[in-house]
Each structure stands twice: as C-alpha cells, then as structure tokens.
C-alpha cells in the first residue's frame, strides 16, 4: 500500500531546509523578506502563503498533474523568473524532497 504524504512530511522537509541553511550561514534566514504572507506553520498558512506577491501553491494546481508548475516547486528546482533558486545559495533540497512536495500537491495537499 502506498503511503500518503501529509502536510507534516512537507513541513518537516521545509523546516529541515531552514535548519541546513542556518547551519551553513551561521544565522537564521530572513524569511520576512519574502513578504508578510509567508510561512508554513500550518497547512492553512502554507496554502495561503505568498512569496514576493506570488502564491507558493496556486490553488488551481492542487490535485492536478500540473503540480510541477507550482511556484514552490519552481523556486526549489531552478528559481522563479527574476529570483534565484531557493533557498538562496543552498544547500538545496534533494530531488527526492522536491518530488515529495510535488506529489503532495498532486495528491491534493492532504493534512
């Protein structure tokens, strides 16, 4: 039986990425520079999050085969137009972690 990817799995991946960035740079990242509506403390917060005025996960992509087009996936793989790959300067998420987030979006962003 295939395991369902949950919000907790995605939050763990994103939190681990922040921890790795902090360890590499010796300070916490300035997440507030992304905008006031940015975060992933809860499922609702992540689904409403925006970075630089763009939704991290466009609602029309949730539960579709177009999950790879979600801004969060694009930002983590090669960067949105005009912005570098995230997190800036790395360390970058593994292909496996990015695929996990993408599968979560494709499966409808379950709790």
Give a brief rundown of this model.
With 111 residues, the chain is mostly helical. The protein has four helices and two strands, in the order ααββαα. Helix content is 40%, strand content 4%.
List the helices and strands and how they pair.
Blueprint: H1 7-25, H2 43-48, E1 50-51, E2 54-55, H3 71-77, H4 95-106
Antiparallel strand pairs: 1-2
Helix pairs in contact: 1-4
Strand content: under 5%
What structural class results from the helix and strand content?
mainly alpha
Radius of gyration: 13 Å
Summarize the main sheet: 2 strands, antiparallel
Helical fraction: 25-40%
Strand order of the largest sheet: 1-2
| Separation of the first and last Cα atoms | 19 Å
Q: If helices are DSSP runs of H or I spanning 4 or more residues, what is the number of helices?
A: 4
Q: Detail the poorly predicted runs.
A: none
Can you write the helix and strand succession as a string? Answer: HHEEHH
Principal-axis shape equals: globular
Mean pLDDT: 95
Oligomer: single chain
Number of strands: 2
Structure description:
With 111 residues, the chain is mainly alpha-helical. It is 40% helix and 4% strand. Strands 1-2 form a two-stranded antiparallel sheet. The longest helix has 19 residues, at 7-25. The two termini are 19 Å apart.
Keywords for this structure?
single chain, 111 residues, mainly alpha, two-stranded antiparallel ribbon, 4 helices
């Amino acid at each position: 039986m295939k395991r369902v990817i949950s919000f907790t799995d995605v939050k763990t991946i994103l939190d681990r990425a922040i921890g790795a960035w902090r360890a590499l740079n010796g300070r916490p990242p300035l997440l507030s520079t992304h905008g006031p509506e940015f975060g992933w403390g809860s499922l609702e917060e992540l689904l409403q999050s925006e970075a630089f005025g763009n939704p991290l996960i466009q609602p029309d992509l949730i539960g579709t085969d177009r999950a790879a087009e979600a801004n969060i996936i694009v930002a983590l793989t090669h960067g949105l137009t005009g912005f570098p790959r995230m997190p800036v300067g790395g360390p970058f998420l593994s292909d496996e972690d990015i695929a996990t987030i993408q599968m979560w979006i494709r499966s409808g962003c379950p709790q």
